[in-house]
Structures are given as structure tokens and as C-alpha cells.
Write a structure and sequence with these properties.
Length: 224
Amino acid sequence: MLAPQDVTDNIARVRARLDELSTSHVSLVAVTKTWPREAMEAASRAGVDGLGENYAQELIGKVGSGRGDLAPVHFIGALQSNKIKSLVPHVDVWQSIDRTSLLREVGRRHRTWRESGGAAGRPRVLLQVNTTGEDSKAGCAPRDLDDLREVAMAEHCEVVGLMTVGPTDGNPGGTERAFRTLRALVDQHGFAECSMGMTGDFELAVSLGSTMVRIGSAIFGVRH
């Protein structure tokens, strides 16, 4: 990974660009997947709003020894029900919830953890929406949001917003349509957070109303 000072400088540059693009605060989630614990620590010291992780075992390995002063951890990867129990103590925000079975398992496992002495409060989730229509993309259909929200309430999960991933081919027109779709859904359902935009498209995302971006290579460099 880059030296800690380089990480700090890159975060400052991204933050400055976000401030230029929006008059409101845009949350910066540093995507630390595949990078070591030291990357999480460097980004946290630099003041990011969250740390994005994709892989259950990797996350557990990096934070299992203690949270320390790490920023809140967002799970942003494909989520499997059988991994949720082990992830609950380490995840602050679940960003990739796209079906009712995951909501029920997050709710159930969080209640069990809380009753055994874990942190109080409800699990915070963002519902992932497939805004591109690509079969390869995770995410629920927009028409399923009401049902997911109803299950979330029953499971005492706090739905703070929606998230999406732009089209695989990176076509600017398709990306814009996907982001406009998510922003409209956020407004329609009255959510606070609109999580969209990564290194290659975060400027477009913020211009279209993103409140949270997930940035990896612009902070830590290209993964090998």
C-alpha cells in the first residue's frame, strides 16, 4: 500500500473535490478491501467517514483483534446469510442488503449479539438496488423496496438509505440513468442516504445527488 502520508494526502484531495461539487457534506467511505489493517488505520486517522469492506473473512481477520480507533465499518460486498453471525460484531453499516432473507438474518443475529452483551441500538442498513437491469449486478428491483422496508421494520433494522453500483461497461449515459434512478427512489421513499459513486464516477454521482461515495483506488492506488 501507499505510505500513510500519501493516503492522507489523497483523502484530502478527494475531500476537497467533494466540497467543490456539493454544498452539503458527502460522506467518504474509503474502500479498504484487499488492503491491510494499516490502510484502515491510516484512512481513519485522516478522517474518513467510513471504511468499506467486501469480504467476510478478510474483514474479520483485520478487525478481530480489536477495533481501536477505526472509523465505522461498512460492509459493501455480496453478503451471504451464513456469514452474518460472524460479521455482526464488526459491521456498523450493512450496505448490500437486497433481499428479505438477509434482513431477517441481520435482525436475528444482531438481537442475539445484543442480548449477549454486544452494542445496543438497531442495525443500520442500506438497501442495494439494481438500477442497471444487468443480470450480473446484485440488488433488488425498485418495486421490491416497500416489501424490504416492511421486513426491516419488523426486524428492528434502521433503513438509512439506498445504494447502487453503476453499469459494468462504465458508459456515461448508462451511469447517469442509473444514478438518476437511485436518487429518485431515495426521494420517493424519504430516505436520508444515497450511496452511489466510486473512483471512476463519483463526480457524476455527487452532481446527481449522492450523499455517500465509496472510494478505493483514488485513495490507496491500484490493487495488484
